[in-house]
Design goal:
The complex is a heterodimer of chains A (about 110) and B (about 110).
Chain A lengths: L3 E2 L4 E5 L4 E7 L6 E7 L6 E7 L4 E4 L2 E6 L4 E6 L8 E8 L8 E2 L3 E6 L1
Parallel strand pairs in A: 2-11
Antiparallel strand pairs in A: 1-3, 3-8, 4-5, 4-9, 6-7, 7-8, 9-10, 9-11
Chain B lengths: L4 E3 L2 E4 L5 E6 L6 E8 L3 E9 L2 E5 L6 E5 L5 E5 L8 E8 L7 E2 L3 E5 L1
Parallel strand pairs in B: 2-11
Antiparallel strand pairs in B: 1-3, 3-8, 4-5, 4-9, 5-6, 7-8, 9-10, 9-11
Classes of the chains: A mainly beta (about 110), B mainly beta (about 110).
Chain lengths: ~110, ~110
């Protein structure tokens, strides 16, 4: 049973527009959420995170929103750039989980010039 | 500051063989985690080590094992390889108690 779901395997947006990547989770014990970006032949790179005590966290062009009642989080990229084309993974953890992040299966973002 | 280093980057084995993968964490990071990435299952947690002790383990068979050395370097071993073990094996390190993991580039294992 998947605890973290990314229902869109792929997303295509135009350069300069907003990219919105979505993630749903089922375990209400999750208290920390992360987004990673992965290019081919590289490991995942940490992008941004949010604690369950917040509903928004912003870092430059990247903003993560958390809706705990809906068990939903989203990553907004504004404006999108061709270099943002990658696979984006949503991950969740429980305090004290000792290295165990639960990942979604990823969304492949393509930003077209 | 050097990142997480994994060796080898690519390897090919045949069914029934065993394989050992190595991971050097970021200097100062004493927690090392291992993940398996496959197209069908995504990233799945294998185990985590801290101070040479396995503190957490995912849902994988006993053929998957690991260890950590006193310098925090870690190895994982897969015995009696099966075709389904073909995957990208990722190592990640972190500071104790940190939520954010820093990943290496991975070791791509192909089992024929």
């Amino acid at each position: 049973d998947q605890q973290v779901k990314q229902n869109s395997p792929s997303l295509s947006v135009q350069e300069g527009r907003i990219s919105i990547l979505n993630c749903d989770y089922t375990n209400s014990m999750f208290d920390y959420f992360l987004w990673y970006k992965k290019y081919p032949a590289e490991g995942p790179t940490f992008l941004i995170s949010i604690s369950s005590i917040k509903d928004k966290n912003e870092d430059g062009r990247f903003t993560v929103f958390l809706n705990k009642s809906a068990k939903h989080l989203s990553l907004h990229i504004v404006p999108s750039q061709p270099g943002d084309s990658a696979v984006y993974f949503c991950a969740a953890s429980v305090q004290g989980s000792q290295g165990n992040l639960i990942f979604g299966k990823g969304t492949k973002l393509s930003v077209k010039p | 500051k050097a990142g997480v280093t994994q060796t080898p980057r690519y390897l090919i084995k045949t069914r029934g063989q065993q394989v050992t993968l190595s991971c050097s964490p970021i200097s100062g990071h004493r927690s090392v985690s291992w993940y398996q990435q496959t197209p069908g299952q995504g990233l799945q947690f294998l185990f985590e080590y801290f101070s040479e002790t396995q503190r957490n383990k995912g849902n994988f068979p006993g053929r998957f094992s690991g260890r950590q050395f006193s310098n925090s370097r870690s190895e994982m071993n897969v015995s009696t390889l099966e075709l389904g073990d073909s995957a990208l094996y990722l190592c990640a390190s972190s500071l104790l108690g940190a939520n954010v993991l820093t990943f290496g580039a991975g070791s791509r294992l192909t089992v024929l």
